[in-house]
Design brief:
Chain lengths: 234, 312
């Protein structure tokens, strides 16, 4: 457990000493801020629904970019060999790196807290959906981080890791909007797979155990697949 | 200390290491020698738990690598080939990270880092970023990394590759120094290095062990004859040949080359059993030739190595 903490803090520090972190944060804030506020005043409603509607798609792009280096870089530089010969287990490594990714995503979200604060001055803001939205955003971010981590464990090339992660996250986000392509019998299952569907439930302020279970399952599957992928490398 | 049995590693169909058996005693400095691609690095990687063997067993002390890998990792310090360190960290941060992961306590951590910085000469670069360091400095940081927890076993993969002669001498000095108490396994394809640092040498070629002996024994073994070289002034080769051929034990008298100033260089092939240097000197003393040089060729590792790797 202690080793998880050490790896986690090292990875997190790595994020913040490289300029890439700040570029990713800026791009994320710029894109979400622009898309959200261009329509915000047209709707004339004091809520963040539009912001949370956009979040899964932006996350599908941003999170694989954040997680792509976690394993790929180590494979490429060769430091993976050093990491594996230190007294740590695969579990320590994977969980440490995963948590670093999640905390970094949380750090990206922190500046956006200024939106609800600002909106609360403009009108009557219902805080329930806002809190639900942020909780959902964290769960969604964690789930996508697990997927991104898995993609990173597959290859030593960060670009490939990014694209693989993007494809999986993007598919999960849009799949419940593509239901007309699937046979009727599968609709229930496929609708349930969609990350956006579960996220929107939570961001309405309804905390349903099914949605939470969904995200936890995705996290578990992602991390488990990562475990298989790194084990396979031996 | 380390017991390796039938260790085998396949990369798909390619057999990199083929049924290697090894026993390494405590306090030994073992050199793993071999041409490029012989399986040295693969062997070390399996010993340190980075690769899983295809088959075979590795036991370190009482731990087996299948069951208690974590315990074995704690006993070992490993410097991979060309020291692939985290390039975006500062040297101090990196050593600090390793110290923490290795479980050093807060108070002993700093003193240990200081100690290693002195030993490996890192004091001036403590606050430099690792990617700015030259290869030799990186190697030294890697060495400090490997020694951080004062491990009982030190595994070094080509510790001096790419260093300049001064740095090589320094690193060898360090290895010799720590080798007094620790078990060290190092791989190299530089023979003089094995000669300079190792107690025992294992030569591998194409994944198999082809020689495993102490340094002294290796040097003496092999070949039916040894050679004595003499250099004479004011002598005729034909006369020398006649005089020396009659000595019991000399198989062949051979002129190597005639250098300027009338120096005659001669190589004598002798039977290994006896040391003929005294007899030869006595024979030459009878004549009016001037002996300016006489020595017995010792077989160096290079010749042994070439003989052994060529055979296969």
């Amino acid at each position: 457990m202690q080793q998880v903490v050490h790896i986690f803090s090292k990875e997190l520090k790595d994020y913040f000493i490289s300029p890439i972190a700040y570029i990713v944060i800026s791009v994320f804030l710029l894109v979400t801020g622009w898309l959200f506020f261009t329509t915000f005043f047209l709707y004339n409603q004091a809520d963040l629904r539009n912001f949370f509607n956009l979040l899964p798609i932006t996350f599908a792009f941003v999170i694989p970019a954040v997680t792509m280096r976690l394993f790929s870089e180590e494979f490429n530089v060769g430091s993976y060999e050093i990491l594996l010969t230190l007294p740590v287990t695969f579990r320590d490594i994977i969980i440490g790196k995963f948590l670093a990714g999640v905390v970094f995503i949380a750090a990206i979200l922190i500046p956006t807290l200024s939106y609800p604060i600002f909106i609360a001055f403009l009108g009557q803001l219902d805080w329930g959906p806002v809190i639900g939205g942020y909780a959902g955003a964290l769960l969604l971010g964690a789930a996508f981080s697990a997927i991104g981590l898995f993609a990173s464990a597959l290859t030593r090339n960060q670009i490939i890791a990014f694209i693989v992660g993007l494809v999986i996250c993007f598919s999960l986000t849009v799949i419940d909007k593509m239901l007309f392509f699937f046979p009727e019998r599968l609709l229930g299952v496929i609708g349930y797979i969609g990350a956006d569907f579960h996220f929107q439930n939570i961001s309405k302020g309804i905390i349903d155990s099914r949605d939470i279970l969904y995200f936890l399952s995705i996290i578990f599957i992602g991390l488990y697949c990562t475990h298989i992928a790194v084990q396979e490398k031996k | 200390m380390i017991h390796v049995e039938n260790l085998t590693k396949y990369y798909n169909d390619f057999c990199a290491v083929d049924r290697i058996n090894l026993d390494i005693e405590k306090g030994e400095i073992l050199g793993l020698l071999g041409p490029n691609g012989a399986g040295k690095t693969t062997t070390l990687r399996m010993l340190t738990g980075y690769f899983l063997p295809t088959s075979g067993t590795i036991r370190v002390k009482d731990y087996s690598i299948d069951e208690s890998l974590l315990e074995i990792k704690k006993l070992m310090g490993y410097l991979p080939e060309s020291a692939p360190l985290y390039h975006n960290m500062l040297v101090f941060d990196y050593l600090n990270y390793v110290a923490v992961i290795r479980g050093l306590k807060q108070d002993e951590k700093i003193s240990r880092i200081r100690e290693l910085a002195d030993l490996c000469g890192l004091n001036d670069i403590m606050h430099n970023s690792i990617d700015e360091l030259s290869k030799g400095l990186k190697q030294r940081v890697g060495l400090a990394h490997a020694m951080m927890s004062d491990p009982e076993i030190l595994v070094l993969d080509e510790p001096t590759s790419g260093l300049d002669p001064n740095q090589i001498a320094e690193i060898r000095q360090i290895i010799r120094q720590i080798g007094k108490e620790k078990t060290i396994i190092l791989s190299t394809h530089i023979l003089s290095e094995a000669e300079a640092t190792c107690d025992r040498v294992v030569i591998i070629n194409q994944g198999k062990i082809i020689a495993d002996d102490r340094m002294e024994n290796l040097k003496q073994s092999g070949g039916q004859e040894n050679f004595i070289q003499i250099s004479l002034l004011d002598a005729e080769f034909s006369a020398v040949k006649d005089a020396l051929s009659s000595i019991e034990g000399i198989i062949k008298v051979q002129q190597m080359d005639e250098t300027q100033d009338g120096i005659l260089n001669i190589r004598l092939a002798c039977k290994t059993a006896v040391d003929l240097r005294k007899t030869i000197y006595q024979a030459i003393k009878q004549t009016d030739w001037n002996l300016i040089q006489l020595y017995r060729e010792t077989k160096n590792l290079e010749t042994i190595f070439r003989e052994l790797t060529k055979e296969n």
